[in-house]
Amino acid sequence: MLATMTSINLADRAVDLGEWARTTPNAADVFATAVRAWLDEHLAGEFAHLKGRGGPGSEHEFFEGRLAWDRHLARAGWTCLGWPTRYGGRGATLEQRIIFHQEYARANAPARVNHLGEELLGPTLIEYGTEEQKARFLPGIVDVTELWAQGYSEPGAGSDLAGVSTTARLDDESGTWVVNGQKVWTSLAHVAQWCFVICRTEKGSSRHKGLSFLLVPIEQPGVTVRPIQQLTGTSEFNEVFFDDAVTDADLIVGEPGDGWKVAMGLLQFERGVSTLGQQVGFDRELRDLTRIAESTGAAANPEIGSRLTRAWIGLKVMRAHAERTLDGDVVSQEGAASVAKLLWANWHRDLGELAMAVIGAPSLIGPTHTVEGDANDITDPDHVELDEWQRLFLFTRADTIYGGSNEVQRNIIAERVLGLPREARQ
Question: What region holds the Acyl-CoA dehydrogenase/oxidase C-terminal domain (predicted)?
Answer without folding.
Answer: 257-418
